[in-house]
Amino acid sequence: MTGARQAATAEHTARSYYDSADADTFYSRVWGGEDIHVGLYERPDEEIAAASRRTVARMAEIAGVTAGTRVLDLGAGYGGAARQLARGLGASVHCLNLSPVENERNERLTGEQGLSGLVTVATGSFEQVPVDDGSVDVVWSQDAFLHSGHRDRVLDEIARVLTPGGRAVFTDPMAVDGLDQSSIQPILDRIALSTMATPGFYTGGLERRGFTGVRFHDHAGQLPTHYRRVREELVAHEHELVPAISGGYLTAMKAGLQHWVDGGNAGKLTWGVVHAVRA
After folding, report:
1. Which of the chain's termini has less CB crowding within 10 Å, N or C?
2. What is the pLDDT of residues 31-62, one digit of tens each?
3. What does the mean pLDDT of the chain come to?
4. Is the entire prediction scored with pTM above 0.70?
5. How many angstroms separate the CA atoms of 254 and 26, rounded?
6. Rounded Cα distance, 248 and 70, in Å
């Protein structure tokens, strides 16, 4: 499959998945309500939403987000991070996301919370970002780039839209460097791609594009903790979800979440915060 075709296939798969009624119900009711990303847990039994908000706060600290910072959130999901940055820090956040279903919820929640003046929402791809060159201070993303079929293009776009001195800060579930990725085939099948990125792919790619201060803040242990917590919540509330989510989706999700837990515990997967400054 050519790079362009793989990218198009990956984009279609991600959009179709997140736009489904099953996925929308699962992520809004089980995963944390406003956030669809991995949390930073202080306790193994901590609430998912609290851990998710801690991830946003930590990333904002790393990237130096303050009042007036122009943030572009790639793969913004329901916009929980954007609203946290706007409400707590006064940042101006533009959300770009593939899923019209998620974007509608984002716009509704943003309006209900009185943040429409600071948070905007657009439908689009992070491989073709509809934003002017050098127009944003921070490119932000949480656990979205794994769905890309052309991650080099994503890094190109990050470099293009950032102002000189701008910061990239993002998280992503990754394979560890040097892994034979055939050993995580069930996860690759789940995301419908042939590979996952690695920390070295991102840090090396940013350095080649002239970024400085490139760093990967490794929080590998958080990944299996998070997916275990999500699975626990799904199992605990499964009887309530059955009327709203198909049995096939629930069965596949439980199995899929366990693959992430197992991969993380086996040391095959990692997760953390990538940060870099555009020269």
Report:
1. N
2. 767 888 999 999 999 999 999 999 999 999 99
3. 93
4. yes
5. 11
6. 41
Q: Are 73 and 81 in contact (CB under 8 A)?
A: yes
Rounded CA-CA distance 220/210 in Å is 26
Distance CA 1, CA 160 (A): 27
Which residue, 160, 128, 170, is CA-closest to 4? 128
d(CA 180, CA 204): 19
Q: Tokens 């990725």 label which residue? A: 181
Residues in a beta bridge with 72: 94, 139
Name which of 132, 125, 161, 148 is nearest 202 in CA terms: 148
Closest CA to 161 of 123, 194, 133: 133
The C-alpha atoms of residue 233 and residue 253 are separated, in whole angstroms, by 12
Q: Quote the CA–CA distance of 141 and 122 in Å, as a whole number.
A: 15
- Cα 107 → chain centroid: 18
Maximal CA-CA distance, the chain: 53
What is the number of alpha carbons within 13 Å of residue 160 lying toward its C-beta? 14
Three-state DSSP at 118 gives: coil
Q: Hey, is 107 helix, strand or coil?
A: helix
For the chain, the residue count is 279
Q: How many CB atoms lie within 10 A of CB 164?
A: 8
* Per-residue confidence (pLDDT) for residue 24, from 0 to 100: 84
Element (H, E) at 123: strand 119-123
- How far the first Cα of the chain sits from its last, in Å, is 35
pLDDT at site 19: 65
